[in-house]
């Protein structure tokens, strides 16, 4: 009777190949998962920036509506008027925006709006309208 020699090490080779395939599959899956997580984070940030931009535009529109009611009560010698407004966001949180009116000419103004931060003045007015401008005196004949 002939003795059959078994090949030793075949099981080890199969285990190594299987382990390599599992690790390669895991590496590809984790790479795709990380890419999807990064993409989701960017989409959330983009959405938050768009929402903030919309609220800032709303605050600017409010500032322009204030200018339509009259002129800001700027003290003599000053060219800037600061006030604040509150905008209610979609998630129910009230955010305060700082409105800055700068006088360019007698009837020309620039309006800027930004989100209020911790270092801003705390006692700014929240006007709903500005006083009507004083009419020009009639010319003397």
TrEMBL record:
Keywords: Membrane, Transmembrane, Transmembrane helix. Residues 128-141 have a biased composition (Pro residues). Residues 122-141 are annotated as: Disordered. The keyword Transmembrane helix applies. The chain crosses the membrane at residues 9-29. It comes from the Bacteria. The keyword Membrane applies. This is Uncharacterized protein. It comes from Singulisphaera acidiphila (strain ATCC BAA-1392 / DSM 18658 / VKM B-2454 / MOB10). The lineage of its organism: Bacteria, Pseudomonadati, Planctomycetota, Planctomycetia, Isosphaerales.
């Amino acid at each position: 009777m002939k003795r059959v020699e078994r090949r030793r090490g075949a099981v080890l080779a199969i285990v190594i190949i299987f382990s390599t395939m599992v690790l390669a599959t895991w590496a590809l899956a984790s790479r795709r998962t990380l890419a999807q997580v990064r993409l989701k984070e960017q989409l959330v940030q983009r959405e938050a920036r768009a929402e903030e931009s919309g609220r800032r535009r709303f605050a600017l529109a409010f500032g322009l509506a204030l200018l339509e009611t009259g002129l800001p009560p700027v003290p003599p010698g000053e060219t800037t008027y600061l006030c604040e407004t509150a905008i209610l966001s979609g998630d129910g949180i009230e955010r305060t925006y700082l409105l800055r009116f700068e006088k360019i000419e007698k009837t020309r103004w620039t309006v800027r709006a930004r989100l209020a931060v911790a270092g801003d003045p705390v006692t700014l007015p929240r006007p709903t309208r500005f006083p009507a401008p004083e009419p020009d005196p009639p010319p003397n004949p």
